[in-house]
Design goal:
By secondary structure, this protein is mostly helical. The protein folds into 2 domains: 1-50, no CATH class; 70-170, Arc Repressor Mutant, subunit A. Helix content is 46%, strand content 7%. The chain is built from 7 helices and 4 strands. It has helices spanning 8-20, 24-38, 80-87, 92-106, 118-127, 136-145, 161-170; strands at 70-71, 77-78, 149-153, 156-159. It has a two-stranded antiparallel ribbon with strand order 1-2. A two-stranded antiparallel ribbon has the order 3-4.
């Protein structure tokens, strides 16, 4: 019986979940032992304490990047464009979920918010270099009908567990809608 192959994001989530349960010294030992076990050569980087994401923007990711950049819990820089490239959404609905996830979980603290609107989609689709749909306002309506969002108020949409899981655990996937 073969197991389903994990995506890179799913593997990282599992590793982080396991490491969060250990103290700092045990984390370093676990990482070194895992590297030896899977044959990763070279010296591993110095252990980074697992902390909640920092809240201050730390500058742009590069000369071709727009918008704020943020270090996530893994210590890597996260901006909407790099998140889009990592997760590879293949529809405007998936990209809407990605924008909502970014604004809830990864954006710098001053930019974080629980709900999004079509204005947010237009702003972040452009920053991520994702093609703008003809009717931006219809994307959130369609994504809600697909089960990814709840609507707590007129024109405002909140990512629900289905949408969160799509971004956090399913993307990238050629099977996702």
């Amino acid at each position: 019986m073969s197991e389903k192959k994990l995506t890179l994001g799913q593997a990282i989530d599992q590793i982080i979940g396991a490491l969060e349960q250990l103290d700092e010294a045990s984390r370093a030992t676990a990482i070194q032992a895992a590297c030896v076990h899977v044959g990763v050569s070279g010296s591993p980087p110095a252990p980074v304490p697992m902390q909640p994401p920092t809240t201050a923007p730390i500058g742009a990711a590069g000369p071709h990047s727009e918008g704020p950049v943020h270090r996530g819990a893994t210590g890597r820089k996260v901006d909407i464009r790099s998140l889009k490239e990592e997760k590879q959404p293949n529809s405007a609905r998936q990209m809407a979920c990605l924008v909502a996830f970014y604004l809830q979980e990864l954006a710098p603290e001053p930019d974080r918010k629980d709900t999004i609107s079509s204005k947010d989609l237009e702003k972040y689709f452009k920053q991520a270099s994702f093609k703008l749909p003809t009717k931006v306002e219809q994307v959130l309506v369609d994504a809600k009908k697909a089960g990814y969002f709840d609507s707590p108020g007129r024109g405002e949409y909140k990512l629900n567990a289905v949408g969160y899981n799509l971004v956090a655990h399913t993307l990238p996937s050629s099977k996702a809608i």
